[in-house]
Amino acid sequence: MQTVENLSQETFDRCCQRLVNARPLVHCMTNDVVQEITADVLLAAGASPAMIIDEHESADFAAIADALLINVGTITEKRLCAMNLAIEAANKKSMPWVLDPVASGLLPWRDQQIAHFLSLRPTVVRGNASEILNLAGQGKGGHGVDSTDSSDDALQAAMALAKTRGIVVAVTGETDFVTDGEKVLSIAGGDVMSTLVVGTGCSLSALVAAFCACNDSALEASASALQMAKRASEMAAQQSKGPGSFHPAYLDALYQIAREHV
Amino acid sequence: MQTVENLSQETFDRCCQRLVNARPLVHCMTNDVVQEITADVLLAAGASPAMIIDEHESADFAAIADALLINVGTITEKRLCAMNLAIEAANKKSMPWVLDPVASGLLPWRDQQIAHFLSLRPTVVRGNASEILNLAGQGKGGHGVDSTDSSDDALQAAMALAKTRGIVVAVTGETDFVTDGEKVLSIAGGDVMSTLVVGTGCSLSALVAAFCACNDSALEASASALQMAKRASEMAAQQSKGPGSFHPAYLDALYQIAREHV
Amino acid sequence: MQTVENLSQETFDRCCQRLVNARPLVHCMTNDVVQEITADVLLAAGASPAMIIDEHESADFAAIADALLINVGTITEKRLCAMNLAIEAANKKSMPWVLDPVASGLLPWRDQQIAHFLSLRPTVVRGNASEILNLAGQGKGGHGVDSTDSSDDALQAAMALAKTRGIVVAVTGETDFVTDGEKVLSIAGGDVMSTLVVGTGCSLSALVAAFCACNDSALEASASALQMAKRASEMAAQQSKGPGSFHPAYLDALYQIAREHV
After folding, report:
1. What percentage of chain C exceeds 70 in pLDDT?
2. What is the ipTM of this complex?
3. Three-class SS of residue B153?
4. Residue B42 C-alpha, separation from nearest chain A C-alpha, in angstroms
């Protein structure tokens, strides 16, 4: 059985400092629902977001960006084409890119696209338990875009997926796990209120991309992004009365953590 | 003349309890402006939103959803095609769907699409007074997406529309009215600040869809959704200093009302 | 050398009063990321936003609107086509329109489109220093969508651009400048926190359009919009702990300034 380790405070601090100092440019190709929160999360955490979506310029922009996010939430044929061009540009210069396989396992056409993206070897796949179980061939589908499985149940699937594909897999939930197929880092904490604010998961994938842009270890970078989000969620939960006030408090908390690492 | 009744507290509580317990999956095909607030409103109120927009998968997703929202705010030809497929899937399994005829009466092409959707017999049409007057053939157009008529003035038009089409019509404004052409339920209250936050109307249509998913009477379900929004607006107005702080307070209030009905 | 003047309180008050009383209908054709904040800023400030994006109806809507915003943040071929039709309708009736040249200087295809829009003679171009320097042929490109130049450095370029094109140019940053090529108005103040909330710049271009709709002098109208935003930022900064709480506080402040001018 694998040994599950915690992310050290030292590694977290180092990864955060690098993010804040580098201010990486993150090319976000994400769904229509979470564009604003994704940009706001990156800005609060110290990164620089840009959403360039058209096939005429997605490769050009990927070529000058520091990391790329591919999120399939509201894909269309046009958007897929632009995403493929951006991924090609990213792979050409070995730039890290993150795949967020929203609702994997529910819809055949989408699953085809996700399988194709997976074959292009993302640096990291970040998903919920139902999504990761499905990618590992063990899925039974979530409740729409929400998971019906626990992250603990998906850990073995995440490890198998990481090993087979030679990538890092992050499965998030009550406890988050990040694995490269050998090592496993776990991140506890957070708050359930984050599940009632749309885009906390999707924007987390963008944050993973930002951290990967300025740290060589995608495992540690991803774990640091998840850790930052978990801590910000805890801080926000103490300041809020519901999901409405949680949202701005979460952004304030990310900003505060970033400021502590200048 | 019709008798206008109030929604009973008992019916409201029952409808809310069903929503919170069922956590219905609401397929939202809505405009680009209100995606986030629509998802956040559904999550706060206890439902589960998903925005699947492409023609390759809109019917597949409608087939597994519990209700469907069609909002024409930023329609394109591609989006219309995907909407038609989703409606077909919804009608096939007699799943409730709600039509939000944004800016009806202002633009010829849009009015053609709205007329077509109306002919497919939505469970509920939810609009402002100018929109509903126009659908009933008595319109003179609003001020952009805002109404220039009062909901009282649109009540007769709403009843005629409901009767002719065999649907439920909800006309919202200072006082909301819901009618099936025979009975009329009215919902008073709310706060004018909600008109200064984009998407409070559009997300209300999504909430109507969520309530319809778990209650047989579309009349009572719709009235309960409007009631929940009116009460949340009142609560939010007391907590806020302007439209900026009203938005998170409104989501917190919806969440609080939902929690009271677990 | 040019003389730089401040906007007088009297002119600001007059422009604000006209905005609040006229409640202009602003046709926003903007990017996918900032739709919500753009609508919310216009509503808070006393204007009426509508986002009509398709080529079947963009000209029809421009024909009934009071001002038009063209923002190229997430352009696609379809969207460009609809934008051109709207601009044609705007120019036909001499309605003011504002061009926001997001990320000008970074991507060849985008720069072609921006150059084309510029040739159609917008009433106002509103951009950051890197964008304006590029439009004046002196650019070296920004960091993604963010400026790497100061607005002071771009003032000469803004004046040259305004003079050559016969338009008003607003370059925003730590200090904002508005010029018609002869006169220069400067607006100081604001708060750096606004740079950590996505869409504060894009929504400012929409606000410029709203002010231009009800004031004959595009120079004074633009300066008043920038002044309103600067003051709202200062007020919001005092109420907030980070970019999360800044966002609602900024909208509340715009609303408060608008209320003072009823």
Report:
1. 99
2. 0.97
3. helix
4. 9
User: What is the model's pTM?
Assistant: 0.97
DSSP, collapsed to helix, strand or coil, labels residue A143 as: strand
Nearest-neighbour CA in chain A from B151: distance (Å): 29
At B29 the three-state DSSP class reads: strand
Condensed to tens digits (0 to 9), the pLDDT of residues A156-197 reads 999 999 999 999 999 999 999 999 999 999 999 999 999 999
**C-beta separation of A90 from A40 below 8 A:** no
Q: Residue A131 in contact with residue A102, Cβ under 8 Å?
A: yes
**Partners of residue C25 in chain B, C-beta under 8 Å:** 143-144
Which of B32, B107, B195 is opposite residue C32, by nearest beta carbon?
B32
CB C160, CB C133: distance < 8 Å = no
Residue A247 touches chain B, beta carbons under 8 Å: yes
- Domain range spanning residue A140? 4-259
Q: B76 touching C, CB under 8 A?
A: yes
Q: Which of the residues in chain A have pLDDT under 70?
A: 1-2
User: E strand or H helix at B4, and its extent?
Assistant: strand B4-6
Read off the pLDDT of residues B157-196 as tens digits, 9 standing for 90 and up. 999 999 999 999 999 999 999 999 999 999 999 999 999 9
Other CB atoms within 10 Å distance of the CB of residue B189: 14
Interface test with C, best of A29, A37, A56, A239 (most C CBs within 10 A): A56
Q: What is the pLDDT of residues B36-69, one digit of tens each?
A: 999 999 999 999 999 999 999 999 999 999 999 9
Q: Which chains touch C (3 or more CB pairs under 8 A)?
A: A, B
- At A131 the pLDDT is 96
Task: Kindly list the residues from chain B whose CB atom is less than 8 angstroms away from the CB atom of residue A33.
Answer: 35-36, 39, 51
Handedness of CA C145, A233, A3, A133 (dihedral sign): negative
- pLDDT of A78 reads 96
Please tell me the total count of domains within chain C.
Answer: 1
Residue C137: count of CB within 10 angstroms of its CB: 10
The CATH number of residue C126's host domain is 3.40.1190.20
Residue showing tokens 């490269």: A180
Is the Cβ pair B248, C248 closer than 8 Å?
Answer: yes
Give residue B237's pLDDT.
98
Tell me whether residue B3 is exposed, middle or buried, using C-beta atoms within 10 angstroms of its C-beta: 0 to 12, 13 to 18, 19 or more: exposed
Within 8 A of C250 by CB-CB distance, chain B residues are 244
3-class DSSP assignment, residue C27:
strand
- Alpha helical stretches, state H, A65-107: 77-92
Could you give the CA distance from residue C88 to residue C84 in angstroms, rounded to a whole number?
A: 6
How deeply is A189 buried, as exposed, middle or buried, from its count of CB atoms within 10 A (0-12, 13-18, 19+)? middle
- Which of C198, C202, C247 is most worth mutating to test chain A (most A CB atoms within 10 A of its CB)? C198
As given in the structure block, the two tokens for residue A240 are: 């809020």
Q: CB distance C243–A255 less than 8 Å?
A: yes
Q: Is B244 on the interface with C (CB under 8 A)?
A: yes
Chain A: closest CA distance from residue B54 (Å): 6
Give the separation between CA B122 and CA B83, rounded to whole angstroms.
12
